[in-house]
Write a structure and sequence with these properties.
alpha/beta, about 400 residues, Aspartate Aminotransferase, domain 2, single chain, binds pyridoxal-5'-phosphate, 2 domains, Aspartate Aminotransferase, domain 1, globular, 7-stranded mixed sheet
Length: about 400
Amino acid sequence: MIPSILPTYSRAPLKFVKGEGSWLIEEDGRRFLDMGSGIAVTLLGHANPILVDALTSQANSLWHVSNLYEIPGQVELADRLVEATFADTVFFTNSGTEACELAVKMARKYHYEKGQPERLEIIAFEGCFHGRSSAAIAASGAEKMVKGFGPLLPGFLQVPFGDIDAVRAGMTEASAAVIVEPLQGEGGIVPLPDASLKALRQLCDDAGVLLILDEVQCGMGRTGTLFAHERAGIAPDIMMVAKGIGGGFPLGAVLATEDAASGMTVGTHGSTYGGSPLAMAIGNAVMKTVADKTFLEDVNRKAGMLRQKLEGLVAEHPDVFEGVRGEGLMLGIKCKMPNADVVNAGFDAGVITVPAGDNVVRLLPALTISDEEIAEAMARLDKAATAAKAA
Ligand SMILES: *Cc1c(COP(=O)(O)O)cnc(C)c1O
């Protein structure tokens, strides 16, 4: 008999009832160090008092009004994002998938309005993840995501990740945009080198093609800069944000330059919930905290420490681990044994990690994790690796 919850997930037998900073707690009081953050979502830890305060005080005054009216906090958060990034304008969504939908629509509408309606093809990379909508799965092209779901949305091309020559070869008069994660998350924490990001920017400029960056997972300070692309000294035309920006409340955004957004006029897009007063209260509190030099400096310091300890862990367990990759507090350990075994051994040792593609175990802790918690996470991962090897 089908369970009452549609069985699209294979769930671990864990039932958390409370969160405190970097900790998740089960009913019986068992505490787990959370190095997954609900897949890079709880950016500032669980039940962060700043966010609890922002949410509850907003909840006491106004939950929802339509985007037909001015929404408290929206201009403030949009201004903050515009101030801190390449962008001139922002649209708020509830998720990364919805941000992907708008990014694709915006890119196609841009060319349409510029008199080139034939430019509708989006070039994406193998191993990418942009969400689960028809457009996002078509961008991925992966069989496990698209098979059985009917006609694939046309206008997407996949090239090998980071292969700039393949992008160049794939660009035609029908190209609208290139979409890429500066650091692939689901694909297995695979960084796109700075030189490749710069080369992509140049290719797009030369061909009159828009560059869409998906920073849903790697953005919001996770890699040590507010957004991951900053380290390459380039800027996209359109950027997708979600996950961390809501700190656990559903919130996403599409950021764009004035030119890239020029086709999106009144009536061309909308959302019932996007940019709600509750989401804006949280988003403003998250941005205020993260878009701060000293906060990001501390993220970088802790990231260096975590990286060093992880390299040590890998060296201690050469039969279990192959190497560490990633940036900032978005790190992956490539495994020699099945990554699921390592993740499960972690549950037994009281540490939560997340599996990713390419047999990688992901570490995406809250940016507020303490030095002591990093040390404790390493002790627990060490225990997990020993147990996984013995099993
Ligand atoms: C999670 C994710 C998405 C999809 O976001 P949802 O909020 O799950 O719809 C898109 N892109 C990347 C890079 C992601 O990590």
